[in-house]
Amino acid sequence: MPGITREEVAHLARLARLELKPEELEHFAGQLDDIIGAVARVSEVADQDVPPTSHPLPLTNVMRPDEVRPSLTPEQALSGAPAQEQQRFKVPQILGEE
Amino acid sequence: MTTTTDLVSYEDALASYDPVMGLEVHVELGTKTKMFCGCSTALGADPNTQTCPVCLGMPGALPVVNATGVESAIRIGLALNCEIAEWCRFARKNYFYPDMPKNFQTSQYDEPIAFDGYLDVQLEDGETFRVQIERAHMEEDTGKSLHVGGATGRIHGASHSLLDYNRAGIPLIEIVTKPIEGAGERAPEVARAYVRELRELIRALGVSEARMEMGQMRCDVNLSLRPHGTEKFGTRSETKNVNSLRSVERAARFEIQRHAAVLSSGGTIVQETRHFHEDTGSTTSGRVKEEAEDYRYFPEPDLVPVAPSREWVEEIRSALPELPLVRRNRLREEWGISGNDMQSILNAGALDPIVATIDAGADAASARKWWMGELARSANESGKALDELAITPVQVARVAELVTKGELNDKLARQVILGVLAGEGTPDEVVDKRGLKVVSDEGALTAAVDEAIAGNPGVADKIRGGKVAAAGALVGAVMKATRGQADAARVKELILEKLGVTEG
What are the start and end residues of every segment in region (Disordered) (chain A)? Predict the structure, then answer.
């Protein structure tokens, strides 16, 4: 299995909006390669007959009835917002950010 | 934006190329609460009054699935002839955009709850086209952005944006077709008919009102062209948020013409999202589509799998209502009308009012006559939908009953309907207030007939001489004298009787 390349780490960093220095790209490429290698070894053992685990608890169908519960007040909802206006979360210009 | 787009004529485009479409429809469910938390979904609330730690994406908040949301998804899947997954999971679709405070949308990726179905749609001429369904999956809606500083709330030129997360987390079902091939020049019509049929279906299932003008149902039109005789699909464009039936058809048509212009001049189509403009019927370039893997989907760790038991699925299946196409065909036969007549009824939004009027005791022909006649006209004039008019099917049925009993003629009935629409009360109240009763008092009628004959001796002579058609003038005189409140057929009988002629 070929490992993760430096270019792939740079791409992931961009998707995750992380600004990485060249030496950090090198560093994380090595680390991620180790992690992926470890996961790949698990995949070798787990065949088609082993169902994928998405949760440590063997539960399915945890649902709630369609009943309205109290919401936060707008003051509470906005209390952590760095900026607000007209009872809304204020965010910088959306397009042209890249 | 004033950029012009090169187009070739629709006919020329179809002469060289074969369109392939994929339609993605998002339906906002009509549940009381959001998909993963108990916040209300009621419309029209003040901004950010229907949010909680879950739908705001606060650290540590845990989502729990709305049982009605899952049931609605299964209902939709079954009505679309899909298989229902025995086991499926939610997935995180990661992206950074302020409309989702979590920085991901909880959706389904490779394990949709419903898959491999179809929907039969009827085109205007009655031909049926089968659209194959790839999948229907559960996800959540995003918040609403308000762009400030640009022209008329547009994103371009905005200095900043304001977010209201009341809508974030409202359950959505995304229904995706398989590539629609073989529709040829009728592709735009198929697209429209499909979305319309889907809307009827969603409404019949009672899972959403599916009002496109309110964003409860939104359509993305994927379209590509390939030269005739080739199998391989061309590069597609994805026109987002096309929000009326007419726009779906126009967007598909425009993209066919645009793609053909690009391809026939030797260019290549860029895989991108495009925006549809209602005013011009055109599309403009949006962002270049991110590849699916850029969303870095992975199974949602905060939710456990959904594994609908077969018993539950069969219970839901057995409770499905009669589906719209089946119902329409049954009613068409019961009423003895043509496919075109039924299409007009559908286009006018008159099907449900007519059925309700028949249920309230009217015969089918009268119910159709009033809803497609006087009421359709009135709705048109006031720019309202039929079901928004200030008259109920029960009231229309009462008017029809008064006509059947001979207490009203059509002309008076029309006045009664106008009275009800004007808020003058029930049909019976309008009859009383406006004094609208057919004059059935034979004495009064006979007197009016005698008067009309005496006042028009020339006409009377013609009738005596066998020109029965001339009786119309005398009927008119009697109707005028009785202010339209006589039964015209009876008046004619009386005139002919008096003048000693028989009709023939």
Answer: 47-98
